[in-house]
Design brief:
By secondary structure, this protein is α+β, with helices and mostly antiparallel strands. Helices cover about 50% and strands about 20% of the residues. A five-stranded antiparallel beta sheet has the order 2-1-5-4-3. α1 packs antiparallel against α9 and α12 crosses α14.
Length: about 575
């Protein structure tokens, strides 16, 4: 016997081993490379992002500070012109001055307002504890008395920090009455900055820190503030030194830069704003992404080993499943073949039945058509016979002969109808001649005269002055007109004052419109289908409009129906117009 050969399509065992080892080596190389590249890219990206956010915050802080100073700078100029305050200084009556300043401070948003008299005594203030205090030696009082403009002052507090004031003297004519002092609340920005940034400070033109998130920095220069900051301060050890950064733990610095120092100018008296932002969160964010990547590669490696261990079991399961699927497919194909044979036999029987039904339907339709089309001439003949009998009884034979002549014409028409019905099973075949639509309408109305006289229907005719000619079969056109008039009469049976309007118009086509004032059409989609009728049994078989539509289509026209705006049904017969009426007459 020949040695056992491996199944075709599956790799040999030795092939599996070296390919798996190669795949694992490639996976490890890709993992190490991905982690290294991610570390470099994410470090650079988050470092730049931290720098951009620090720069954006600095611009925002500077803009808010400048806006607050500019908004309060105009207040002393406005209050120095207040007539109430000027009058209080002239009359030394300050009973309402404090309340007026309180009303102003709510609108302005300043920290406090003070009104000083000419001797520097506080005569009105939003803080009532300051009433009566002396400010004669304060810089803002002295400078305001000497200047004709608004004076800005930075005054140290006894408790630490600074007060920021705007002051302007109040004059009445050439006399100096006092000084209005507006204190600006800039410490609210320190509280806001401290909750977002690591460290922010504002220095004046001399380099003195006047605002800072660290209260111990106020009044110092930047160098003095950094030298006295302890390692447990706002930006920790990174702010103490940047020269010997390698002596500190590696996680405290990135790329040789301990902190980000950003500085910008504030367009106000040479002020500058400086912010310090650490890189503390950069390493944490990068390490978080690296941890996710390492975990992903670990899961991928575990899935590879799991796939290798399950490979043999899956191969056996695949063979068993394919065998079961083949058996099920074979059974399903046998059932489908048997079902298809039964369907073919049933289809053959159905085709024979359908052919027989079509023949019977054609015979029934022809017989119904004959009954429908001959009903109108028979009704007219009955009326003429009754009239002739009455005339003979009255010894008026000549007039009776006229009725018999009309009956003879109707018999000829019935013969023509039976010949015409043969054309319903095929299209064309008859010779077309010019037809005057006005004469055809008159003939149709003459045939309908007994019914119109009996029903007492008001007929309104609107005809053009010139004759309207079409190319067609006059007998078939009259047949369509009679059907339309008969439908209009049937539709107005339940109307108290029945009216039928007939309009003949000539344009691009010859259009005959028959409008009634009945109840309208309920189902416009089925109105031209054979055997569709709304009449009572015995009154009609539903073939009149179907036959009329077929006649108009054979003549190259169109028969349509719609409901009128004021109620009732509107039927329009459109036929190709014959423009040369003279040639048509010839």
């Amino acid at each position: 016997m020949k040695p056992h050969q491996p199944i075709s399509g599956w790799p040999r065992s030795d092939g599996i081993s070296w390919r798996v080892r190669l795949a694992l080596v490639i996976l490890l190389i890709v993992a190490v490379g991905t982690i290294w590249v991610t570390n470099r890219m994410m470090t650079d990206r988050f470092t730049e992002s931290t720098r951009n956010r620090a720069e954006l915050r600095l611009l925002l802080y500077g803009g808010n500070l400048q806006s607050e100073l500019s908004r309060n700078a105009i207040v002393p100029q406005l209050l120095a012109r207040d007539p109430t305050l000027i009058g209080a200084l002239n009359s030394s009556d300050y009973s309402q001055s404090t309340q007026r300043l309180i009303s102003f401070v709510e609108e302005i948003g300043a920290a406090s307002l003070m009104l000083l008299d000419g001797d520097g005594r506080t005569v009105a203030a939003t803080d009532r504890n300051r009433l009566g205090s002396q400010h004669r030696g304060e810089p803002y009082f002295v400078d305001a008395i000497r200047s004709n403009s608004t004076i800005f002052s930075v005054i140290p507090r006894e408790s630490g920090g600074y007060r920021f004031t705007y002051a302007r003297k109040i004059e009445s004519g050439s006399n100096t009455l006092g000084v209005i002092v507006v204190e600006v609340d800039l410490q609210k920005f320190e509280r806001t900055w401290g909750g977002i940034s690591d460290a922010v400070m504002v220095t004046d033109s001399t380099g003195t820190i006047v605002l800072s998130t660290e209260s111990r920095w106020r009044g110092l220069s930047e160098q003095e503030a950094l030298e006295r900051e302890t390692p447990q301060g706002a930006i920790e050890r990174a702010i103490r030194t940047t020269a010997d950064w390698t002596a500190l733990p590696a996680e405290a610095y990135l790329q040789g830069e301990a902190v980000i120092r950003m500085e910008s100018k504030i367009p106000f008296r040479g002020w500058r704003m400086t912010s310090f932002s650490t890189y503390a969160s950069v390493r944490e964010r990068v390490n978080g992404i690296l941890a996710l990547e390492i975990m992903g590669f670990a899961i991928l490696l575990a899935l590879v080993f799991y796939a290798l261990s399950r490979r043999t079991a899956l191969r056996m399961a695949l063979f068993q499943r394919e065998s079961a699927e083949l058996r099920a497919l074979n059974s399903r194909l046998q059932r489908e073949i048997a079902e298809r044979e039964r369907v073919q036999e049933t289809l053959a029987v159905a085709e024979q039945t359908l052919a027989q039904s079509s023949k019977l339907a054609a015979l029934g339709e022809m017989s119904a058509a004959v009954s429908h089309e001959l009903n109108q001439p028979l009704a007219a003949m009955k009326t003429y016979l009754a009239g002739a009998r009455l005339l003979l009884r009255r010894n008026r034979p000549e007039e009776a002969l006229s009725s018999f002549g009309r009956i003879d014409d109707l018999l000829d028409r019935m013969g023509a109808i039976t010949r015409q019905l043969k054309s319903y099973a095929r299209k064309g075949g008859d010779t077309l001649t010019p037809v005057n639509m006005g004469d055809a309408l008159a003939a149709a109305l003459s045939m309908m005269e007994p019914q119109l006289r009996q029903r007492k229907v008001e007929i309104a005719r609107i005809l053009p002055e010139e004759q309207v000619w079409v190319m067609g079969d006059r007998l078939r056109i009259e047949q369509v007109m009679v059907n339309l008039l008969r439908n209009a009469l049937d539709a107005t049976k339940s109307v108290r004052n029945p009216e039928v309007q007939i309009i003949l118009a000539a344009g691009e086509t010859a259009t005959l419109t028959v409008r009634d004032n009945g109840d309208g059409i309920e189902d416009l989609e089925s109105i031209f289908e054979p055997f569709y009728t709304t009449k009572q049994p015995g009154d009609g078989v539903g073939l009149g409009l179907a036959i009329s539509s077929g006649i108009v289509n054979d003549l190259g026209g169109r028969l349509s129906a719609r409901n009128g705006r004021d109620g009732g049904a509107v039927f329009e017969m459109q036929l190709p117009i014959l423009e040369t009426g003279v040639e048509a007459a010839e």
